[in-house]
Amino acid sequence: MSELRWNPILEEWVVTATHRQERPHRPDDQCPFCPGSGKVPDQYDVYIYPNDFPSFSTPPPNPTIEGSDFYRVEKSFGQCDVVLYHPEHTKTLAELPLEHIRLLIGLWQRRFRELATRPEVNYVLIFENKGDVIGVTIPHPHGQIYAFPFIPPKVQKRIDSAEKHYKEKKECLFCHILSEEKKDGRRIVTQNGSWIAFVPFFARFPYEVHILPKTHVASIDALEKDQVIDLAQMLKTTLSKYDGLFGFSLPYMMLMYPAPTDGREYPHIHFSIEFLPLHRAKDKLKYLAGCETGAGTFINDVSAEEKARELREVAVSL
Length: 318
Fold this sequence. Notes:
Mean pLDDT: 95
Strand order of the largest sheet: 3-5-7-6-11-12-10-9-8
Distance between the termini: 45 Å
Shape: globular
CATH architecture: 2-Layer Sandwich
Number of helices: 6
CATH superfamily: HIT-like
Largest sheet: 9 strands, antiparallel
CATH class: Alpha Beta
Order of helices and strands: EEEEEHEEHHEEEHEEEEHH
Low-confidence stretches: none
Number of domains: 1
Helix content: 25-40%
């Protein structure tokens, strides 16, 4: 069962998907994403796997409860994909060769274009949850793509802020952020010809890193060939720095923020990728407790400048 239920307090949709309780938890001896499982091809490099426990689907099931004008209920139109990065069970994105990462970016681009054409899809979120502390149920290297029938609330807030800045300042909010970060320099972690990675001035997590194209691009499908080549290098460099930070493969959430796919024009949206690791030290986690979860106000225990310096000083070899 999967359905959308309206929260009248926050004015946002909540997905109720009870079948997701049946998801397998860390089946190392019978991983469905490994060749030979019978669920994926015996040979693949990167692969789109339809989620067995989707929050959104087309056609969606009928809601199990009848809504009202106040407690609204809708069908959960959309799509949930699993993106398999590599057939080897223990590989991570940081460990993939640059050519393989470029294959993965190409798959992200193609799938984004396909989903963006579907009339029921208003937003396509490409993301990865990595590591036990994030709650990953299958450790095989993979990410996900969710095609939403609405624009998610945090994404909408980003869009509204960017639109307000664009109207008032006649410039892209994210281009302005890039300008400020380049001018200061202390929070830049690494950069190449097309991309820049930095711990933002307003970081919510100690080792939060944002990666933005240096030129204004709205979505991943609009990246040119040289930008794809540079993005592969930027992802590998950033993630290798993460892994070199404490001497283990750092867990994180990766989120890609493109323009919506609802048919409107979004000249103020600048494609970005955000990495949110939960570690604040080698043996300490950043828990989202009352203030963060209940009030939505983050408290960062460290300075962005200090953590950017730590990441910048991690030597990597590609």
